[in-house]
Design brief:
heterotrimer; A alpha+beta; B alpha/beta; C alpha+beta; B: alpha/beta; Elongation Factor Tu (Ef-tu), domain 3; Rossmann fold; 2 domains; seven-stranded mixed beta sheet; six-stranded antiparallel beta sheet; globular; C: four-stranded antiparallel beta sheet
Chain lengths: 160, 277, 381
């Protein structure tokens, strides 16, 4: 049976991280599970943790009056969920709902933030790994905005 | 019938046998061709002529094992495609073809096959899946990643379901935006790439969709480790003659109707980066 | 008489028409119309632009008279021979609605046989370029083949350079080397005569029917001198060495923006260019919708529609369209056909309303060559 530290070390997110840092993360981590339909977090709630999905999918949603809930993006196995815990005011900006059974590691935000303040190198290792995730999500979101499958707004419409 | 010499400008008659609506603006037509020997390679296209209206290039999207049949999925965006999409069974259309290069299925034998489709780009890729799934043992892992605008725009839903229920194919579908009834993935198709269960170094990838989507999908494939010699794209350009003579489909040095529409990414990487080529 | 060369008095040029008419040819040649020298069917030597010359410059064309009564004392005009071999508009087929769908009626092959009189060296190269495009690819154009096979070519060796041509630097002239049935060099010193060279058995036959006399050394010297004069007078050159690679590695050069600010995207250059071959296809019906036809028509890559793709044009800016034309003409033509698309005739320079000169554009890109952005394209497999 592998320890939590060994399991974390195998995960791509923690690749190349020093043992002592992984130990610090492990110290703030716990195993969690959500049944299909359950919310991992809701918009506006304190962002007191983030997740690393080990199994199952999570839909990032927003509630729109008159429209109900709209899914922004679906995250799956291996994905990092949540970065609002890094940025004040530390509040979730979307709902996170388990689409199916979800198993994940949950990392206590206060725990990690405190340790990062004490050990800036830990903070740097974290941000080095978190920023690429944000970049990729942003790029995917921008592509989503382009509405590439739409009529196509390439330029001047001409009769043809 | 028509005792005329084979002239590549002359269409041959084909009868609409069946017509099915896929989405609010997309229909699939099944045609019985003039010749029972009509056959094509996955990736090729026909020029379809609606009497008196005009002619457009449409990919062949049926099974390449069926002879004498041409299946076309048509999106009604202009005068000709709208006319074609509304044809009833029994009507005759003109067909010229098949034209163009095809997906190199032989290259994928013995390796993993990854199909990445966006929007109506699934149409020229469906023949690949028909071909591969009836000869499943020739390929390693097979995965299909398909993205569409909304759940209403998904093509071939019944087939996707059938493929998904097979244990030897991975099918992942996503939409750019969804309603609250959609239980599937939301996000652009590139977000599905890390989830494909293929060995990137041993994968041949076929990509088709809007050019922007293909560029990002190819970038994602390269990041995964799929070699650019093993990535193929299908490019679209304005076509009038499909014979390499009218000049409309030129893309750099290539005539897309003749040296395409399927290209190896390694051969056209530079072209994809030039604006307004 | 030596059947490979002869000398023909200028006054006997009319008999060439007679000989060609007897053989069933429609003679097409230069004639003055609407202030320009165009190519049209002509019936006699008198219809040629006798004693006329042209003054050409970027965006400028003017006819002037000349004192010596020369029959061919000018360069090329807005027409090229592609007008006859590859007509601006051509029906491909007709169709009629029928119970079983529709009945197709293909067009019969053309039967008219043309004798082209006055084909310059650059134009012979242009004919060879179109032969490559229409006859030597995987798909051949049967009506082009029929017209081309039936054509008789009387070339004319240029005795003076035009104001905008640059065949010397393109290696396409001014000397006609091959590809003609007969070649005439007009000699104006002393007796007004033509030095005639034979290029084919049929050319020899036609020459045999004309009142020629054997050529002597003086005739050959005069003929060579005329052609040499044309070469020396040429004021313009296009640095053709490595131009393909030059353009392909400078696709984002700022010069394209500069020329785009001047270019009107009018397409004149493509109309007058002897090698441009782009076309479009038009389908139409009669009012009742029972009779349909498809026509092929000349098209130009400068039109916004040319690259239209559901939603808009791929080449949406003048910049991209001018670049497409020039890069195709001087670079990717090599990938496609193994030759340059440009024959140095200078028409595009003369007939551009704003006088854009492609030799100048190439020179500008060369002088600020972006070598650091090397992006070599592979040869087309």
């Amino acid at each position: 049976m592998k320890s939590l530290e060994e399991l974390l070390a195998e995960h791509p997110f923690f690749r190349g991280m020093k043992e002592e840092h992984i130990r610090l993360f492990a110290g703030c981590a716990s195993n969690v599970r959500f049944d299909a339909g359950a919310f991992l977090f809701r918009e506006g709630e304190p962002a007191d943790r983030f997740f690393l999905l080990r199994h199952g999918r999570v839909a990032l949603e927003v509630q729109i009056p008159g429209r109900g809930s709209a899914v922004i993006q679906t995250l799956g196995e291996g994905d990092v969920v949540g970065w609002s815990w890094v940025v004040p005011p530390y509040r979730w900006t979307f709902d996170g709902r388990a689409v199916e059974l979800v198993r994940a590691w949950s990392f206590d935000a206060v725990c990690i933030r405190t340790k990062a303040e004490q050990d800036p190198s830990l903070g740097y290792e974290l941000l080095k790994r978190l920023l690429p995730v944000v970049v990729e999500r942003l790029q995917a979101t921008r592509l989503q905005l382009l509405d590439v499958y739409g009529e196509g707004k390439l330029g001047v419409r001409s009769p043809a | 019938m028509y005792a005329v010499p084979p002239d590549p400008y002359l269409p041959e008659p084909a009868v609409v046998v069946r017509r099915r609506r896929e989405t609010p603006d997309v229909w699939t037509l099944e045609l019985r061709t003039a010749s029972e020997d009509f056959s094509f390679q996955p990736g090729q296209f026909n020029m379809l002529y609606a009497f008196g209206v005009g002619e457009v290039p449409i990919s062949l999207s049926g099974s390449p094992d069926r002879r004498g049949v041409a299946v076309h999925t048509v999106r009604a965006v202009g005068a000709v495609t709208t006319a074609l999409a509304q044809l009833r069974p029994g009507t005759v259309v003109g067909v010229r073809g098949p034209f163009g290069t095809s997906w190199p299925l032989a290259e994928a034998e013995g390796r993993d096959l990854l199909v990445v489709a966006g929007g109506i780009g699934l149409a020229p890729l469906r023949p690949v899946l028909y071909h591969a799934l009836t000869r499943r043992e020739r390929y390693g892992r097979v995965a299909v990643l398909y993205g569409a605008r909304t759940p209403q725009d998904l093509l071939y839903r019944a087939e996707l379901g059938r493929w998904r229920s097979r244990l030897d194919v991975q099918v992942e579908v996503t939409v750019d935006r969804a309603d609250h009834e959609w239980r599937g993935n939301v996000g652009v198709v590139t977000t599905l790439l890390p989830r494909a269960s293929v060995d990137p170094g041993e994968t041949v990838a076929f990509v088709c969709g809007p050019e922007v989507m293909m560029r990002y999908a190819v970038a994602g494939l390269e990041r995964l480790g799929v070699p650019r010699e093993s990535i193929y794209v299908s490019v679209e350009r304005n076509m009038k003659c499909a014979l390499g003579l009218c000049g409309h489909c030129q893309w750099g040095p290539y005539f897309v109707c003749r040296q395409g529409p399927v290209f190896r990414y390694g051969d056209v990487e530079g072209l994809l980066r030039v604006r307004e080529l | 008489m030596n059947t490979s060369e002869a000398v023909l008095p200028a006054s006997a040029l009319g008999q060439l028409f007679a000989s060609l008419h007897r053989r069933g040819y429609t003679v097409v040649g230069p004639t003055v119309r609407d202030g320009a020298i165009v190519y049209e069917p002509i019936r006699s030597a008198e219809e040629l632009p006798v004693g006329v010359t042209d003054e050409q410059s970027p965006g400028g064309y003017r006819l002037r008279s000349r004192e010596d009564g020369a029959y061919f004392g000018y360069a090329v005009g807005p027409h090229s021979w592609k007008k006859f071999l590859y007509p601006p508009e051509q029906r491909l087929w007709r169709a009629e609605r029928a119970d079983h769908g529709f009945e197709l009626q293909p067009e019969p092959l053309p039967t008219e046989r043309y004798a082209f009189l006055g084909v310059r060296a650059c134009e012979l190269v242009a004919l060879a370029v179109h032969d490559k495009v229409f006859l030597q690819g995987p798909v051949q154009d049967s009506s082009y083949r029929a017209r081309r096979a039936g054509a008789f070519v009387v070339a004319v060796q240029c005795g003076q350079a035009g104001g905008t041509c640059f065949c010397v630097s393109m290696g396409t002239g001014p000397r006609c080397e091959a590809g003609y049935d007969l070649a005439l060099t007009e000699i104006l010193d002393g007796e007004h005569r033509f030095y005639v060279e034979v290029g084919s058995p049929e050319g020899a036959e036609v020459l045999g029917e004309l009142p020629g006399r054997p050529a002597v050394e003086e005739d050959r010297r005069a003929a060579d001198g005329a052609v040499a004069r044309a070469a020396q007078q040429m004021g313009r050159r296009l640095e053709a060495e490595g131009v393909r690679e030059l353009l392909l590695r400078n696709l984002e050069h700022p010069r394209w923006d500069e020329v785009a600010a001047r270019c009107l995207s009018c397409g004149n250059c493509t109309l007058v260019c002897p090698t441009c071959f782009c076309s479009t296809v038009e389908d139409s019906t009669d009012l009742r919708g029972n009779l349909a036809e498809r026509r092929r028509r000349w098209d130009s890559c400068f039109t916004l529609d040319f690259s239209y793709l559901h939603g808009g044009a791929v080449r949406n800016t003048t910049r991209s369209r001018y670049r497409q034309w020039l890069v195709h003409k001087l670079a990717t033509w090599w990938d496609q056909f193994g030759t340059s698309g440009c024959v140095g005739c200078g028409r595009c320079i003369t007939w551009c309303p704003v006088g854009i000169d492609l030799t100048e554009e190439v020179a500008a890109i060369r002088s600020a060559d972006r070598r650091e952005k090397q992006e070599e394209w592979d040869e087309v497999p």
